[in-house]
Amino acid sequence: MYATTDTPVTTPATQGGRSRWLALYVLCAGMLMIVLDVTIVNVALPAIQDDLGFSSSSLAWVVNAYLIAFGGLLLLAGRLGDLLGRRTIFVSGLIVFTVASVLCGLASSATLLIAARFLQGVGGALTSAVILGMIVTLFPEPREQAKAIGVFAFVASAGGSIGLLAGGVLTQAISWHWIFFVNLPIGVVTALLAVRVIEKDKGIGFGRGTDVPGAVLITSALMVGVFTIVKPAAELGWTAPRSIALSMLTLTLLACFVVREATAANPLVPLRIFRSRTLTGANLIQALSSAGMFGIFFLGSLYLQRVLGYDALEIGLAFLPTTLVMGLLSVKYSEKLVMRFGPRRPLIGGLVLIVIGLALFTQAPVNGNYFIHVMPVLFLLGLGGGVCFPALMGLSMADVKPEDAGLASGLIGTMGEVGAALGLAILATLSATRTETLTTAGKPVLEALTSGFHLSFAVAGLLVATAVLIACTLMRPTRTAAETEAEAELVLDAA
Predict the structure, then answer these.
(1) Which residues of 39-57 are buried (b: 16+ CB within 10 A; e: fewer)?
(2) Three-state SS for 147?
(3) Does domain 12-210+266-477 correspond to CATH entry 1.10.1060.10?
(4) CA distances (Å), 364 to each of 3, 387, 425, 442, in order?
(5) Average pLDDT in the 306-333 region?
(6) 297 CB-side CA count, 13 A
(7) Contact present, 160 and 35 (Cβ < 8 Å)
(8) Mean pLDDT to the nearest integer, 155-165
(9) Cα 138 to Cα 126: distance, rounded to the nearest angstrom
(10) How far apart, in whole angstroms, are the C-alpha atoms of residue 287 and residue 282?
(11) Would you say 99 and 175 are in contact if contact means Cβ atoms under 8 Å apart?
């Protein structure tokens, strides 16, 4: 089997069958609120700019402030869940996120909104970092675990496209303030239900002391790294002196963190967790696939807006095929595929479908037709994501000890967030540079824009293709449920 959760743990794993599924739905509700916020804000940015007087350069900080806090704290939040109890960290994150959402909605200036968005990122990291770890301890039986992870993977991966639709509806029907106010009732109800239906876990405690230096080093490294990706690297390029200096600072902080964890008596992140080839491979695949998929959702939206002339609501509706297909596969069929073929083959097959979809997107013309040039691509992306992401989530928690489940959960989230930010920065820069070059050479604006998007789609395909190679080489073939049952029958017959 692909998940190792046989060891008894002081977690909600002891809950009854029905209450465990209720707990899963509460966890997914919290995750959906966090994931929606990543994309729902993008649709409302023009309205926010007009209302609060953001400059074109400072507007990006509405997104960047959230990403820096969220990406920087995920790994630390996951480990705190192991130490202090995952339900405690989950509920604390919901409270912080909900309060920050209200502050965002009430913000009367650009500065206040950016500060509240940073606080939102803190709450988002605390909430989402521990969810996958809680799921694998709630569902130790492989078949149920595969089904539960399928539901979670759908929420985590398809929620972004739902955010595009919700953002368009709320912004156009009411105002941009309500993309934040809507989190208040959801956050309050989810937190109350979490306390009621999720059993409190104890956590392993801080043992011989708190690894404060390790916490400071890894949080600083991730925050500086994410800042470098979303600000100087995206705006000035990776060869700019400021980008190089911050990149070197990030690498230095990471190196110091590794040294600290190798010598600390009670490390925040035990380095033994990286001995697993499966875990290492899963995190590399997560970074590469997130880089390709997140960048395409963003740049694909720009193609629909700037080239085909779609408005915010039409863009949200355009991405519905991805959401629907991904949801159907993740919730209804992913568990069956994983149990029948093991997680490795669905992972590889799903990634290949995504590569094919991205390759097709490079052929979308200036006067493209949605049903011919866009919808088939989004269908393939949803099909591939619905097949591969649940398998990837399961593999990321394989070979992980119960006391490290929060850390592994935070790690896969961190790799996804950093990969998405890095991918978006690279793909957006390549697209903009290509467009500018062609425009300078006298090409029509729409042709130049389309060519820039084609380049970014092709590079995104190469990133996901690299993930396919890693899946084929690093991920060991796993025993399927059918093979395990057949062996058990042979043993019984022999006896």
Answers:
(1) bbbbbbbebbbebbebeee
(2) helix
(3) no
(4) 41, 25, 22, 21
(5) 78
(6) 30
(7) yes
(8) 68
(9) 19
(10) 9
(11) no
Helical H runs in 178-276? 178-181, 183-197, 212-228, 234-236, 241-263
Q: Which pLDDT band, with edges at 50, 70 and 90, does 463 fall under?
A: very high
First vs last Cα of the chain: how many Å apart?
Answer: 23
439 CB burial (10 A radius; 0-12, 13-18, 19+): middle
Longest dimension (CA), the chain: 80
142: tokens are 């492989």
Give the separation between CA 351 and CA 343, rounded to whole angstroms: 12
Section 464-471 average pLDDT: 93
Instruction: Name the most confidently modeled range: 109-123, 291-305, 334-348, 408-422.
Output: 109-123
Q: Which amino acid is at 314?
A: E
The answer to whether 318 and 374 have CB atoms below 8 angstroms apart is yes
CA angle at 291 for the pair 74 and 386, rounded to the nearest 5°: 90
**Which ranges of 329-444 would DSSP assign to H, the alpha helix?**
334-341, 344-361, 375-396, 405-440
Task: Decide: 153 and 298 in contact? Cβ < 8 Å.
Answer: no
DSSP helix/strand/coil, 5: coil
Token pair belonging to 22:
């209720």
What are the two backbone dihedrals, phi and then psi, of residue 175, each rounded to the nearest 5 degrees?
-165, 170
Sign of the alpha-carbon dihedral angle for 102, 103, 108, 111: negative
Report helix, strand and coil shares of the chain as percent, to nearest 5.
80, 0, 20
Sole residue written with tokens 């303030």: 177
pLDDT for position 120: 93
Q: What is the mean pLDDT of residues 21-31?
A: 89
Model pTM score: 0.75
Q: Residue 209 contacts by C-beta under 8 Å, 6 or more apart in sequence?
A: 265, 266
pLDDT, tens digit, for every residue of 193-231?
Answer: 999 988 887 776 765 556 778 878 888 887 788 778 767
User: Which tokens is 430 given?
Assistant: 């390549």
Half-sphere exposure of 303 (CA within 13 A, CB side): 31
